[in-house]
Amino acid sequence: MVTSKFPKDFLWGGAVAANQCEGAYDVDGKGLSPVDILPDVHHGRWEALMNPTEALEKDYGFYPSHESIDFYHHYKEDLALMAEMGFKTFRTSICWARIFPNGDETEPNEAGLKFYDDLFNECQRLGMEPLVTIQHFDTPVALMTNYGGWKNRKLIDFYLNYCEVVFNRYKDTVKYWLTFNEINMILHIPFFGGGLDVSKEEHPEQVKYQSAHHQLVASAMATKLGHEINPDFQIGCMLAAGATYPNTCAPEDVWKALEADREGYFFIDVQARGYYPSYSKRFFKENNIELEIAEGDLDVLKENTVDFISFSYYSSRLTSADEKINSKTEGNVFASLKNPYLKASEWGWQIDPLGLRTTMNQIYDRYQKPLFVVENGLGAKDTVESDGSIIDDYRIDYLREHVREMGEAIEDGVECLGYTTWGCIDLVSAGSGEMSKRYGFIYVDRDNDGQGTLARSKKKSFDWYKQVISTNGADLA
User: Fold this and answer.
1) Binning pLDDT at 50, 70 and 90, where does residue 336 land?
2) What pairs with residue 240 in β-bridges?
3) Which of 106, 322, 349, 413 might form a disulfide with 345, Cβ 3.0–4.6 angstroms?
4) Cα distance between residue 435 and residue 384, in whole Å
């Protein structure tokens, strides 16, 4: 009998985000979220992401998020399917604009709170621990238009008011919390990451890092607040991760790769260690970035580090010190050369299971805090056969090898709390707004134009993951 490399209380599950699955964008008093003003990739999504103020003034006709997969009305059916797979945990997010439609109200929207009451209670009834992201690319649009987004320090107070409400409301149903999803993405997609429009800013990097400071302070203060409300809360940070390899063994390439990894680690250094890393001083100086740090900020950061570190992992990256040969892979927001030793997905994301083990070891070596792999998966086009079956062996192959390498990392000594595959049910892609880029074990009948019955059906990977969970990762066949 094959023994499992995974702890007996390992939290197997899946992950979604409110803004990519709930739909019901104007139901029960909800305000506008960033995705609600974006078209799909074929009608200018990336241009809108980079110029959100202009996007607000346009009518694109079709907005993928407005209905999405209508999880808002189908959540009981969807959670039942996840429970059938044996999920121990379900990661989702709270939509800030459902609780505070404009983000700055003093009193919350009761209808929004009630929805998450029902959602988390249903999770608990089915034996699934909710893993809840407080801000998953979901700063209310009104906070951008009225305050300029996270560049305005006032957002710390608005965020903490929101946190206090949800911590108190769900203190008995939610144990695991993440303060910000992929916090380092504020540097790459500032509208998603920070409700920012930097298209007209004279010094975009200054704005992004000042906004990041506000988020880091807010995260620390939320961690303090959460532990005061319920000492049993486990509060984590979240990084868009992936080890960066040097293109050659030239020392210049090795240094370039180290710098690339530091760009993301910068955020977790603050959240997990409690202070700005020494290398940030030179970076700020050379890039003319001067942070406005209020009295007490550094103490707050030092005294309120996270309990665990969560991260997304889809692929590793490759870089060169020679800018002439640096290029971007299709479909990936991180600059990367094409690695000749790796295959790539249909969207250009390079597939590197061993890179997950490498990444886990690097993060754990750096921080010695428990890890949680909260996003990992393969976006691919699925075909529904004439008999209704969906044979997604490519997804099974991807996940099998990543789970295997995650197990190896645990054998290496890495402490890991759990694993939630991304998009466990098909949802709208954050980057492209498409439905055709599917990640789920559960197929949703909806196409890129919003057509379809929204009927749910199981893919072949559904039964495979059910087996993985039932054997605690011992049987990956």
Assistant:
1) confident
2) 312
3) 349
4) 14
How many C-alpha atoms does 469 have within 13 Å on its Cβ side?
23
Range 159-168 average pLDDT: 98
Strands 234-241 and 308-313: parallel
Other Cβ atoms closer than 10 A to 88 = 18
Confidence of residue 381 (pLDDT cuts 50, 70, 90): very high
What is the Cβ-side half-sphere exposure of residue 259, based on CA atoms within 13 angstroms? Answer: 12
Q: Which of 448, 454, 452 is nearest to 435 (CA)?
A: 448
The owner of tokens 């909710």 is 130
Q: Give catalytic status of residue 259 as yes or no.
A: no
What separation in angstroms does the CA of 134 have from each of 23, 151, 222, 373? 18, 19, 10, 17
Q: What is the reported pTM?
A: 0.97
Q: Which residues are bridge partners to 195 per DSSP?
A: none
Residues contacting residue 41 through CB under 8 Å, at least 6 positions apart: 431, 432, 433, 434
Q: Which residue segments constitute the domains of the chain, with CATH numbers given?
A: 11-470 (3.20.20.80)
Residue 349 pLDDT greater than 90, yes or no: no
Return the SS3 of 468.
helix
Question: Would you say how long the chain is, in residues?
Answer: 477
Catalytic residue (choose from 375, 385, 401, 434): 375
CA distance from start to end of the chain:
14
Cα–Cα distance between 162 and 324 in angstroms, integer?
46
Whether 144 contacts 196, CB under 8 Å: yes
